[in-house]
Amino acid sequence: MGIHSRDGRSNMVRNRIQYSIKRICDRILAVFMLVVLSPVFLILSIVIKADNNGPVLFRQKRLGYRGKIFFIYKFRTMVPGAIDLRNPDGSTYNAADDTRVTRIGKILRTSSLDELPQLFNILKGDMSFIGPRPDLPEFYEKYTSRQKHKVDVLPGVTGLAQISGRNEISHAERIEHDLIYIESYSLLLDLKIIFKTVVNVMFAKGLYVRQDKD
């Protein structure tokens, strides 16, 4: 009993230290990327505005750490006033032939450049580079008691669910991957996720819901 208790405390301390290191790295890397990518932000803002008249950024309320609600930022990829379509499980609908998506929006989604404004979310402390993708606030009441542990850590721009199928797997499966990530957290796992995310983005893997699923 005593050994297990010491091991448990040891794991908690180790994870706490790793989380602290992770938060410091998040902020430093976010500042660096915002400075380096500032020309990209400017060019994309001009292109999005020129493609069709509407706001450059899309913002939406999401569920954050310990249930705190925050606004997530993305480059707008849909036509202004696009209706909110949902999959049967309540997750966001997406398809390669989605008529709501603009011409530049398709490019932004395929390249994942639409996610760049989340660097501001990381800088603000709302998000991390790696972690569970944040759900809409109303999802919290639908979570099981176990699934509610998803908000025990900061949400991320990418995570274990995104490299394990992304939109090709169900929302419940994505949450399960998020919980596995939280339960087995390590900085090494974060590095693996970053590497696989880069590969997935390069090949646009898991971007859309599989059309052959029941």
UniProtKB/TrEMBL annotation:
InterPro entries: Bact_transf. The keyword Transmembrane helix applies. The chain crosses the membrane at residues 28-48. One of its GO terms (molecular function) is phosphotransferase activity, for other substituted phosphate groups. It holds the Pfam family Bac_transf. Residues 22-202 form the Bacterial sugar transferase domain. The keyword Iron does not apply. It comes from the Bacteria. Belongs to the bacterial sugar transferase family. This is Undecaprenyl-phosphate glycosylphosphotransferase. It comes from Syntrophotalea carbinolica (strain DSM 2380 / NBRC 103641 / GraBd1) (Pelobacter carbinolicus).
